[in-house]
UniProtKB/TrEMBL annotation:
<keyword id="KW-0119">Carbohydrate metabolism</keyword>
<keyword id="KW-0732">Signal</keyword>
<keyword id="KW-0378">Hydrolase</keyword>
<dbReference type="InterPro" id="IPR044846">
    <property type="entry name" value="GH10"/>
</dbReference>
<comment type="similarity">
    <text>Belongs to the glycosyl hydrolase 10 (cellulase F) family.</text>
</comment>
<keyword id="KW-0624">Polysaccharide degradation</keyword>
<dbReference type="InterPro" id="IPR017853">
    <property type="entry name" value="GH"/>
</dbReference>
<keyword id="KW-0326">Glycosidase</keyword>
<keyword id="KW-0858">Xylan degradation</keyword>
<dbReference type="InterPro" id="IPR001000">
    <property type="entry name" value="GH10_dom"/>
</dbReference>
<protein>
    <recommendedName>
        <fullName>Beta-xylanase</fullName>
        <ecNumber>3.2.1.8</ecNumber>
    </recommendedName>
</protein>
<feature type="domain" description="GH10">
    <location>
        <begin position="55"/>
        <end position="350"/>
    </location>
</feature>
<dbReference type="Pfam" id="PF00331">
    <property type="entry name" value="Glyco_hydro_10"/>
</dbReference>
<dbReference type="InterPro" id="IPR006311">
    <property type="entry name" value="TAT_signal"/>
</dbReference>
<feature type="signal peptide">
    <location>
        <begin position="1"/>
        <end position="34"/>
    </location>
</feature>
Amino acid sequence: MRTTTPSRTRLGLAGALAALLMGAGLATGPAAQAKEKPPTLAELAQRHGRYFGSATDNPELTDGAYTALLGSQFDMITPGNGMKWYATEPEQGVFDWTNGDEIVNLARKNHQRVRAHTLVWHSQLPNWLTSRDWTPDELRAVLKKHITTEVRHYRGKVYSWDVVNEAFNEDGTYRETIWYKTLGPGYIADALRWAHQADPHAKLYLNDYNIEGTGPKSDAYYRLAQDLEAQGVPLDGIGFQAHLALQYGYPSTLEDNLRRFSRLGLDTALTEVDVRMQLPATDEKLAQQATWYRDLTKACLAVRRCVGVTVWDYTDKYSWIPAVFPGEGAALPWDEQLRPKPAYFALREALGGK
Ligand code: XIL
C-alpha cells in the first residue's frame, strides 16, 4: 500500500522558520508585530505533519464571518453534502458539479486541500436510483459510471475520496444496502478499483461511525482491510467519523485501534468529529467535551499514520446534530455566535499551542 507525506502547504519554509522562532519566544522582524495573533489550528497541526480540517456546506458560504474562520483556521475541507450522489447525479446520467465545485474552488483560493465525500453510500441517493429494481448488471454499470465520472471530474483537485461510506452494521455484518443486496460484498473492491483508475493519485478511504473503539464493527473493517490488501485492491486509509456523544462515553481504545490499522500499512484519519450532548449545555458538559476533543486529537498525534483530524463543521451554528438528534447539540468547538468554546482551547493545547 502507498505511503503518505502530508504536505505543509500553508506555512512554506520561511513561515515555518518564523513560527519556530516565535514558538521559542524570539521576535522575527514583521512577524514580531503579529505575535499576539496565535497560530491557527492548521498551523499547529502542520508542526506535527498533520492537517486540521472542517466540513462545510454550500448554504452557509454566504456568511462572511463564518467563511473567514473556515478559510483561516483549517487546511483541509470536506463538502458536507455537495459531492453526494443526490447532488451530483440528480437524474440518471445528468451530472451537476455546482455545489462540489463551489467548495473545491473556495478551498483552492484558501490554499486548502479537500477530503472528497462520498461515492458509495446507502443514504442521500437520488429517487431515480432507489425507486426501482435493478439487475446486478444494470446496477454495476450505474455504480461504475457514477464513480468514474465523479472521480474524473475532481481528478487532481482532491486529496482523498471516501469511496465507501458506512458499509457495516454494529455487529460487524454487512449493511443490507442496495449495493450489498444487489451486488454482494464485492462492490467494495470494485468501487475502490474504479476510483483508483479514475484518479490514481487520490487517497482512497473506507469511512464509518462507531468504529473509533475496538469492537465487532471495527473488527469487520480490520478483516476487510486485510482481505483487500491480500487481493491487491487499492485502499489507502480508514476514516473514523467520530460522531461522539457525552452520554455514551469516550472510546478509550481509540489510540490502540488507530495503531492496529497503521500496522496494516494504512493511513487513518478522524473524519467527521463532533461531540454532542443533551441540551442544555452546562459548564461541566462543555469542560468534559473539551477533554474529549483534546484526547482524540492526542490519540491521532500519537499514531504515526493518523494523518489528520476533521470536525463536522466547526460551529454549532451549522451543526447537523440538532436536526438529526432532537434535544442534542452544542457539539462543535465554536458556539452559535462563532465564539471559541473550551473545546477549541483544548484542541490548541493538544496540538501544542497555548
Ligand atoms: C450529514 C450532513 O451533515 C447533513 O447536512 C445531511 O442532512 C445528512 O448528512 N455521516 C456522514 C455524513 O458520512 O455524510 C453525514 O452528513 C453525517 C453522518
